[in-house]
Amino acid sequence: MTSLDFRQLPDLASRELTGSVMYANDELFAQRENLIAPGAAQHDLSAFGHKGKVYDGWETRRRREPGHDFAIVRLGAPGVIRGVVIDTAWFTGNYPPFASIEAVCADGYPDAAELLQAPWEPLVGKVALLGDTANAFPVDSERRWTHVRLNIYPDGGVARLRVHGEVRPDPAFLTGTIDVAALENGADIADCSNHFYSSPRNIIAPGRAANMGGGWENARRRDDGNDHVTVRLAGTSLVDHVEIDTSYYVGNAPGWARLSGLPAGSDATDESAFVELLPKTALLPDCRHRFRIDANTPMSFVRLDVYPDGGISRLRVHGRLTEPGTP
């Protein structure tokens, strides 16, 4: 994977994946939790508080002693990190001139005090930053990480920290019947016909969507085709049942849906290799649909076709892994 395309991978630190900023040595001007907030940082030129200008990011006070500031982030989904984005959006005269990234792979749920003593390892050395810029840096490491530490030199403000990579879940939890299409279990989107309004990755995100903006919605089709999304499963799996959720999609839900699977070992680029798991079935708007699947062949991908278009809140594919896709 090149340094130019790592930003297409999931953000392992995102709050939407239940990431958390566990600690910051200073957050006087703007709180640390903003670092992993979904969406781009916002800015209101007229917004001032009792501590000064209000920023949608993490900002520390001006240091008057040696040292540097830092924040510790627990990844919502542990994994292999391919690159990071240190976004200084809206910070111009108060951004840190330099930063570095360290990481650790920790068992269990260490607290902030334990992480302060952890054996942190460098991922991105001390690099120069630009103000009001999404500063992107590739990472060359094949190891699995659970936490990252953002160091800024010597102080200043960072709007967002994005940690892009590939999910590597704990294999101890990949047992029994699980959602083999869940991003947090190692699945991901392999292909999508259209994502005009929102990302298809939303349909395999944890939890339930809070509104229509939390699912996958395509543009209105004006031809004779249909839209579709393909999910690479967490590993080859025997599928037991699926859930196709159209919650919050009322006047823009698909009229019908069809689910097909790719038998393990088949070519994912060959559409004719997919076999039908759920025939074309009418859907209701704003409804969680559940369907039993009678399939005895392990699948490595599933493809959801919606007819002719429309929004899907969540896709759950419950099954049993026969061979996990990740160790």
Helix content: under 10%
The N- to C-terminal Cα distance equals: 20 Å
CATH H-level homologous superfamily name of the largest domain: Galactose-binding domain-like
The level 1 CATH classification of the largest domain is Mainly Beta
Low-confidence stretches: none
In N-to-C order, the SSE pattern is: EEEEEEHEEEEEEEEEEEEE
Enzyme class: hydrolase
Domain Allantoicase: 19-167, 186-321
Keywords: Hydrolase, Purine metabolism
Family: Belongs to the allantoicase family.
Search tags:
single chain; 7-stranded antiparallel β-sheet; 327 residues; Jelly Rolls; 8-stranded antiparallel β-sheet
SSE blueprint:
Layout: E1 20-24, E2 48-49, E3 52-53, E4 58-59, E5 69-87, E6 98-104, H1 112-116, E7 121-128, E8 134-138, E9 144-153, E10 157-158, E11 160-167, E12 177-179, E13 188-192, E14 227-245, E15 256-263, E16 275-282, E17 288-292, E18 299-307, E19 314-324
Antiparallel strand pairs: 1-5, 2-3, 4-10, 5-8, 5-9, 5-11, 6-7, 6-9, 12-19, 13-14, 14-17, 14-18, 14-19, 15-16, 15-18
In short:
It comes from Rhodococcus coprophilus. The protein has 327 residues and is mainly beta.
Structure description:
The chain has 1 helix and 19 strands. The protein has one helix at 112-116, and strands at residues 20-24, 48-49, 52-53, 58-59, 69-87, 98-104, 121-128, 134-138, 144-153, 157-158, 160-167, 177-179, 188-192, 227-245, 256-263, 275-282, 288-292, 299-307, 314-324. β2 (48-49) and β3 (52-53) form a beta hairpin. It is globular, with a radius of gyration of 22 Å.
